[in-house]
Design a protein that fits this description.
heterodimer, A: Jelly Rolls, 10-stranded mixed beta sheet, 7-stranded mixed beta sheet, 8 helices, B: 816 residues, alpha+beta, Jelly Rolls, Arc Repressor Mutant, subunit A, 3 domains, 22 helices, TAT_signal (chain A)
């Protein structure tokens, strides 16, 4: 390793040029992947076609792009039944790829709401079909959630819902290290159905776990409503529009279990049982903010951890700022870090009020940089024990009702968290974290930190629907001009 | 039918029944009301005492009041009527005399005599029918050659007015058995006022003339901007002869013309010295004060002050105390040149008395006058004498001073400092209540700030600070108890505004208020107090755990983008105020911090450059509740929203609760983060330019604004819905609301309220169904923490306008 230590603001390795190269590669990989998949044909794709590939990397030529001395590799992880964990993080899961620090990985992610309109979001897409496959006998991915495999509503109990691609094992990562994840690119996943060529789709479910549920004006008071949105897959239009909505009706899954509410992920919605309202949200353009709702490393506290409540290792942070150009720093809790990503969103508002965003499959390109524990003292990353986000202009700190709910709430944490959260607690945590950040990374004393927080830090409500509620604190990097350069 | 009436609102009656209902109310105080064909429009609170006296508080549209035709039968020779005009204006006719009356006047009438009161504006008054008051009646009759008006500016008259105002404020909470002692006190005070007048009259035969001169000066002051003003106009307005008026000035050793010119020059001089008006040209300023020709003005100015206007403006005055004090006219210097000597002849004494009036008036007059109409001024330059377009809004300037602020509370009973029309533009100076954290930088040499903050062992210019009791009987902190802390400039009465309407406040511009201290001339400063009410206070890492820390920032508006930098901080130490009360914490606003008791630590936040977001923390209309309301918790009427988006270019919509809306603004901030975590922002005095636009209820029918019952904010790019823990904490928490709100608030409740308001907005303004609104909220609306330190916690929701590309952006229209 050379003397350079990566720090917030440091964007080494990514220049406008190599970013373009990476995108080019990504598109090439995607094309070849689709071509291979076509050859194999619709239904059951082979592992060969859906396996991890190592793309020839433009990075390999430029040694300086990598913090270490070795060449940089670029991997491609398509989404398939073999490359995802559905609804949980696990330190003992088998990694889909092992990489070196500095490597790039392009990762496909699928939204777990794809089956709200399988016609648009699953059909003809081998990756999605592989994951969502479900007939009377077999599910492409049986376990959905960290719950018991024999749960009545389905294996895993739906205790955790997000389809997470990974885990990615980072060689040399150990507890106490920091994993930096740079989001180099994010692109929507085009519909594979020829009828919807050039379009991507996303689903927004106003669900039973939403903030609005139980506080509705019109009848029926306890309804769930799914709104389908269309996104331009070519990237020319930067906004989404609603296509239709429908009220959730009891759905019987292929195993014969009836789901009166949205209580289990990936239930294929039978469109003959629902009534679609066209022309909803007419003339309304929702500006897109493609991002990953769930992104993180595996926690150490338990082997199977539900994907819903975010925690110190990240997870379901649901902050729309985690998009292209953003960098995340996670405290590594287990060997290899075990990074995974999912819950892709085309757009979300701060609070994610009704329970979901525009849940829309995305593909991201990430670069991973490992910061070893021994190198941290004296750097801004020392003592980092929560997911820290850096965007082009801001640092964003994530406060949760419980900073580490698994540790704080003990054995029943994964259940009890849902009844213990509050915005007040999350704000308290965000305050603690921002104070710590300013005192350590900017070397302010406590009084300076508190004054600055009141006059220049914006606190926003990240989400009020993920069990462990979130409040984030945003501070502009320009406040400390001396640090730049 | 109305015997048990305590509250009456004409809007509760069908239109055809209003007049008779209104008549019935006024008969209770032996008055007849006639309304020039218009249906009565007003609100009355009424209470009769055990002694049969009647107190009636009224706020209503223009009308004429006269003795009830049946008074000869109804009154037994022991009834006196008292009219205290709390706001509004009009004229009084009695015994062939006609005089103007205005806000703060108290007039007594014999109900059996003939007289009439013409109220020509919306007004608010307390009318009292005092029974068993034959001794007052005697005094009233004695002075039958003169109007029975009581001077209320100071002395007993002022006390009397305060009492009446307090009775009006509390009327809703007074019952028939509590009124007699108040009645007795009022009677005694009125007797004292009248007998004082009687005593002074024979001793000094010129007192009537002096009173006339005072009135004339006031009249002139209000019309300085009228370039056509002639002595005849003033004489006519005041019901005096031209010759008599000229004699008044002659006795004061001046002439009408000279006085008028001097007053205009003085106003121009003050404007030229005011950095807040730096964006106006010299021509515009001289047109503002009635000079029709810039060259003439320049000559007159140079002759008077020995310096051209341009030179005067360019060269910072060396001693601001001498040259920049607001409202100190040249006449006073003249007075100083001729100190009174014993043995002066009576003529000299009389002249001094008259000059005293001229001087006195100028000293107290406010600069509440028309600022230049920009377009008109330009047009006049191009074509001299060209008429100014009628449609052009007026531009007013409200300087901040003890006379134009209310400190720490809102109330519907505060007399307006100004009445404007919808569409008028106002430049309003505001002061931060934290200026006394560093008096040298933020107060000294600044006449407006000095006027508001003045506090010596003998005198505190603004006594009431907060909605608490004036005798500080609860916690002993000081008058008003600091239950509410913000210095609010206003209120401004918007002509024609009524409950049910919506007032739109457009923030056109915001400028920092420069220091007037010679060492800090031209620089601006703000204070950030990490105070005991902050979110952090019980959650500190380092010792001492219960500390308060004040950080003083300097604001540099010249850089791009403008920014603030910390200058120093200090730990709050117990401060003893000039009245001797010790403030161990920041528990009362405006306590001057003694630099000798604190330790300033320089070099703090040395690396941090804070981008500024100038805005007003407090933007309010008067609440509908009676009595003073704490300025800290925001509510349905706006108030201390502390949302930094209320900056330049923003529009704030507030539901009108009282006649005239009564708009006030204060709590200026140079910058604040969402949450205002430590209790305050960078509290920094600012001057704002506002346009007030009234949306009448009828015009908005069917639109979102017609249903607006909470503050709504619009910026260039966004709509912002302000959720509060309690949308209307007064209504929701009952009689102890002002205490309870500090205990009962939560972020969840604020988030819930923000969600409901956003849903309401999307459904009403954009015609969405509930399901559409909820989906859109989740995918495109951002919820942020506005503040966690103002009792009633705030969460706001931001809707980007780009979401609705086809929407024309007018919230007063019906949805598509």
């Amino acid at each position: 390793m050379d003397d350079h230590v990566c720090s917030p603001g440091c964007m080494h390795g990514v220049t406008a040029e190599n970013e373009k190269d990476i995108k080019g590669e990504f598109h090439a990989a995607r094309r070849s992947f689709l071509r291979d998949a076509m050859v194999v044909g619709g239904g059951a794709a082979t592992l060969g076609a859906l396996g991890v590939s190592l793309s020839p990397s433009a990075m390999a030529a430029s040694a300086s792009a990598k913090p270490g001395n070795g060449p940089t590799s670029h991997y491609y992880i398509p989404a398939s039944a073999e490359t995802v964990l559905w609804g949980y993080f696990s330190k003992s899961a088998k990694p889909v790829v092992e990489i070196e620090t500095g490597d790039y990985v392009t990762i496909e992610t699928l939204t777990h709401h794809s089956n709200d309109d399988a016609e648009r979001m699953v059909k003809g897409d081998p990756g999605a079909e592989s994951v969502f496959y479900w007939d009377a006998k077999r599910k492409g991915v049986n376990r959905r959630g960290a719950g018991p495999m024999d749960a009545k509503i389905g294996a895993g109990g739906g205790e955790g819902v997000h389809i997470c691609t990974g885990p990615v094992f980072i060689k040399g990562a150990e507890p106490g290290d920091i994993l930096e994840v740079r989001i180099v690119d994010v692109a929507p996943r085009p519909s594979a159905n020829p009828a919807f060529k050039g379009k991507s789709f996303g689903s927004n479910a106003a669900a039973n776990w939403g903030f609005h549920y139980g506080d509705l004006l019109s009848e029926p008071k306890k309804r769930e409503v799914v709104t389908l949105y269309e996104i331009d897959a070519t990237g020319e239009r930067n906004w989404a529009r609603a296509v239709y909505n429908y009220r959730w009706t009891p759905q019987t899954d292929p195993f014969g279990v009836v789901h009166p509410t949205i209580d289990y992920p990936g239930i294929p919605v039978n469109h003959s049982t629902i009534r679609k309202n066209e022309n909803v949200l007419k003339n309304i353009r929702v500006p897109i903010r493609p991002h990953f709702g769930t992104i993180g490393v595996a926690p150490a506290e338990a082997d199977m951890v539900t994907s819903i409540p975010p925690s110190y290792t990240g997870g379901n942070i649901d902050n729309w700022r985690i998009g292209k150009g953003a960098t995340l720093y996670f405290p590594v809790a287990v060997a290899g870090a075990m990074f995974s990503v999912g819950d892709p969103h085309a757009s979300q508002g701060d609070s994610e009020l009704c329970g979901t965003a525009i849940e829309c499959s995305l593909t991201g390109t990430f670069q991973f940089v490992l910061h070893k524990k021994a190198e941290l003292p004296g750097t801004p990353l020392a003592e980092l024990n929560y997911p820290l986000l850096e965007t082009q202009d801001d640092w964003v700190l994530h406060g949760f009702s419980f900073a580490n709910y698994l540790a704080e709430l003990g054995a029943g944490a994964q259940q009890s968290i849902y009844s213990k959260s509050s915005v007040d607690l999350a704000l308290r945590d965000a305050y603690h974290k921002m104070r710590h950040f300013l005192m350590t990374t900017q070397r302010l004393d406590e009084d300076e930190a508190i004054s600055l927080m009141s006059v220049a830090v914006d606190f926003g409500i990240t989400q009020v629907v993920d069990g462990n509620w979130g409040v984030h604190a945003v501070i502009k990097k320009s406040i400390f001009p001396a640090r730049e350069g | 039918m109305l015997n048990d009436l305590r509250r009456f609102s004409s809007s509760a009656f069908p239109e055809e029944l209003r007049q008779s209902a209104w008549d019935e109310v006024f008969q209770r105080v032996r008055l007849a009301s006639s309304l020039a064909g218009q249906p009565a429009d007003g609100h009355v609170a009424l209470c009769s005492s055990a002694l049969d006296s009647v107190f009636l508080q009224v706020s209503a549209s223009p009308q004429v009041l006269s003795p009830h035709p049946d008074n000869a039968r109804l009154c037994q020779g022991s009834t006196v009527l008292v009219l205290a005009l709390l706001s509004g204006s009009g004229a009084l006719e009695e015994g062939g005399q006609r005089v103007a009356i205005g806000t703060g006047d108290i007039v007594l009438f014999d109900p059996a005599q003939a007289w009439r009161i013409e109220l020509d504006s919306d007004f608010r008054a307390l009318l009292v029918k005092l029974e068993s008051a034959s001794f007052i009646l005697r005094l009233v009759r004695t002075g039958s050659q003169e109007l029975n008006r009581i001077a209320t500016r100071n002395g007993v008259g002022a006390v009397c007015l305060n009492l009446i105002q307090s009775i009006a404020d509390e009327l809703a909470h007074l019952d028939r058995d509590q009124l007699p002692p108040l009645e007795a006190t009022l009677t005694e005070l009125l007797v004292a006022c009248l007998s004082y007048r009687e005593r002074s009259q024979p001793e000094d035969s010129t007192s009537v003339q002096l009173a006339h001169l005072r009135r004339v000066c006031r009249s002139i002051e209000a019309r300085l901007g009228d370039a056509e003003l002639q002595v005849e106009d003033v004489a006519r307005l005041e019901g005096l002869s031209v010759r008599y008026l000229q004699k008044l000035f002659k006795t004061g050793a001046t002439t009408f013309g000279e006085y008028l010119r001097n007053r205009r020059l003085e106003r121009c001089r003050l404007d030229l010295a005011n950095p807040g008006l730096a964006h106006f040209s010299i021509s515009e300023l001289c047109f503002r004060w009635g000079f029709g020709d810039a060259a003439n003005f320049s000559r007159a100015f140079s002759a008077q002050f020995g310096l051209s206007p341009r030179a005067y403006r360019a060269e910072p005055p060396k001693n601001p105390h001498e040259t920049l004090q607001r409202g100190r006219p040249p006449q006073s210097q003249r007075l100083n040149l001729a100190p009174p000597r014993p043995g002066d002849d009576p003529g000299e004494r009389q002249r001094r008395a008259f000059q005293g009036v001229l001087d006195d008036h100028a000293r107290y007059a406010l600069s509440l006058a028309l600022a230049p109409k920009r377009a008109a001024a330009v047009a006049e330059k191009d074509s001299p004498g060209g008429p100014a377009g009628e449609a052009l809004p007026n531009h007013y300037y409200i300087p901040v001073s003890e006379k134009t602020v209310h400190w720490g509370y809102f109330s519907r009973s505060i007399a307006p400092v100004l009445t404007v029309n919808s569409g008028d533009i106002l430049t309003i100076e505001t002061l931060t209540q934290h200026a006394s954290d560093d008096c040298e930088r933020m107060i000294e040499g600044d006449p407006g700030a000095e006027s508001v903050f003045h506090w010596s062992a003998e005198k505190k210019n603004v006594e009431r600070r907060g909605a608490g009791p004036m005798d500080a009987s609860i916690l002993g902190r000081g008058a008003g108890e600091g239950f509410g802390v913000h210095i609010c400039t206003g209120p401004v009465h918007v002509r024609g505004a009524e409950p049910g309407d919506v007032l739109e406040i457009r923030i056109l511009d915001i400028l920092p208020r420069p220091s007037r201290h010679p060492q800090h001339q031209g620089r601006s400063f703000g204070s950030n107090a990490a105070a005991w009410w902050g979110f952090h206070y019980d959650d500190l890492l380092t010792e001492p755990k219960k500390r308060e820390v004040v950080t003083v920032y300097e604001i540099d508006a010249r850089t791009h983008p403008p920014h603030a930098k910390a200058l120093y901080n200090f730990r709050w130490t117990p401060q003893t105020d000039p009245f001797g009360v010790r403030h161990a914490t920041i528990d009362y606003p405006g306590v001057p911090v003694d630099p000798a008791t604190i330790e300033r630590q320089y070099g703090v936040l040395a690396k941090a450059v804070v981008p500024v977001r100038p805005h007003f923390g407090v933007l309010a209309v008067a609440p509908k509740e009676f009595g003073p309301v704490d300025s800290i918790p925001p509510s349905y009427f706006g108030g201390n929203l502390d949302n930094w988006r209320a900056g330049k270019g923003a529009k704030v919509f507030l539901p009108v609760s009282v006649d005239g809306a009564l708009f006030s603004v204060g709590d200026p901030h140079a910058s604040q983060g969402d949450s205002e975590l430590c209790g305050t922002a960078i509290e920094c005095s600012l001057t704002g330019v506002f346009q007030l636009v009234l949306h009448k209820k009828v015009q908005m029918a069917g639109s979102f604004l017609a249903e607006l019952s909470y503050p709504f904010l619009e910026t260039a790019e966004e709509w912002v819905l302000q959720g509060l823990s309690f949308a209307n904490y007064q209504a929701e928490l009952g009689p102890n609301a002002q205490t309870q709100v500090y205990k009962e608030s939560s972020m969840e409740a604020a988030m819930r309220d923000a969600f409901r308001k956003t849903r309401h907005y999307l459904m009403k303004a954009h015609g969405l169904t509930e399901d559409e609104a909820i989906s859109l909220i989740s995918v495109a609306v951002d919820f942020g923490v506005t503040q966690v330190v103002d009792g009633n916690l705030g969460v706001h929701a931001i809707i980007r306008k780009a979401i609705f590309p086809d929407y024309d952006g007018a919230p007063d229209r019906s949805p598509p």
